[in-house]
Please model this.
Amino acid sequence: MQANGTGGQEPEPEPEPEPQLSCRNGESSSSAAGAVHSNGLLSSANKGLPSTESPTSDTSTKKKKRLSQSDEDVIRLIGQHLHGLGLNQTVDLLMQESGCRLEHPAATKFRNHVMEGEWEKAESDLNELKALMHSPSAVMRMKFLLLQQKYLEYLEDGKVLEALQVLRAELTPLKYNTERIHVLSGYLMCTLPDDLRAKAEWEGKGTASRSKLLDKLQTYLPPSVMLPPRRLQTLLRQAVELQRDRCLYHNSKLDSGLDDDSHQLKQLKTLEGHAYGVSYLAWSPDDTYLIACGPDDCSELWLWNVQTGELRTKMSQSHEDSLTSVAWNPDGKRFVTGGQRGQFYQCDLDGNLLDSWEGVRVQCLWCLNDGRTVLASDTHQRIRGYNFEDLTDRNIVQEDHPIMSFTVSKNGRLALLNVATQGVHLWDLQDRVLVRKYQGVTQGFYTIHSCFGGYNEDFIASGSEDHKVYIWHKRSELPIAELTGHTRTVNCVSWNPALPGLMASASDDGTVRVWGPAPFLDSQETEGLTAEHLIKLHCP
Model:
């Protein structure tokens, strides 16, 4: 907490007499009973504050044990949070009993003067704070922010001469951020307060704008002097994010559980007529169309309207073609297709040929989000990027073994490869480096399609020739789950994009299995992530 919290303030050996500070090693000061809290912050009332001194108590005569720096940091964080909730008397008692102070006395004065709009006093406070700051230039930045607020408030009050004096005699001589000063001078033309607030994107004179100003000013002060705004909430949020990032099993959309009644599978349409069979499917970005490709000896491609069940296009450029792979352009109006006989086409929804690339023996395809670049794995154990607009191409990934298939993450940064005899590899397409090799899967020369999935695509799944489905966290090379049930090679997996807890797998055993989270088991009964197949679909 010390490293992320209050910034390593050294314990002070003995207190100095400070009228607004009533907490030092458990000693209380009667001067704190006025309009300023014992924690150094302004209060609207200070009634009902229990006395810390008792004639019958001997605790006041005993010197309390000094708290560690870590304990003091925690107390300050709690005190700031309670103060934000308006529990000021509770903060007073906490500070008095612990012997801590919420912030440096100079910071307290500075805070109060800013919130009261006493700009000359706030500027004077900066000289006192200067010795406590790490960066000398920070004082000038803070003074600029103070004067800017002062200038805007004068303008809103209609005190144009006073505002002009601030601009000429105080802001300009700083010789800091002259571009901003030119913008500020333009606000002199605003005749109405509403016009000023709109053009300056400013909340106007008062608590809201001064609180926002104070938040900016606090960023220049060490945490030991004044805690950053809402520090406890920030640290708790960071802790939750860190634990979530480190958890290999976190899939936050599963928190509400799986409702079996609301997620039922049913046959929607039967699309018939593929004489050669179907070896690859690709959905359009809006799920309106589905393209089906055949095996190596098939030269035809079918484009179906899934909503109506009608065949929109049956495309074949040549009987010599082998169209075994396809990918949709992000606009949903074009697609690319190809095969290992050297065909590589870009077509529209009616199957009309828009462009072609000769001599590329395509194994797998993917269109990037820029709408121009097409990635294609070929028989040279590589993935190249092809631009159909300027007819340029470049090498992106080079493996030592055949790339049987690949898929790309939603943001286009990562690629997941199934490499013959090697398994599943994760590549960074931007840096063009191999990030990770995932272990466990059995990958020979079968075409197996893996996928990203889960919340934020934190997980990776792949089929395997040992009849299993393997799941990894993206950052871990070892599998966190092995799903059994299929009886032959699992050649494709697909994670539900809307329900992060559902995944489907297809196998050469003629079945499609849908997987979901297993029922809760006691931690002593199971380790790691568990799942079970919910539905088994038999395919003829």
Summary: Confidence is low (pLDDT under 50) at residues 1-36, 42-62, 253-261, 521-530.
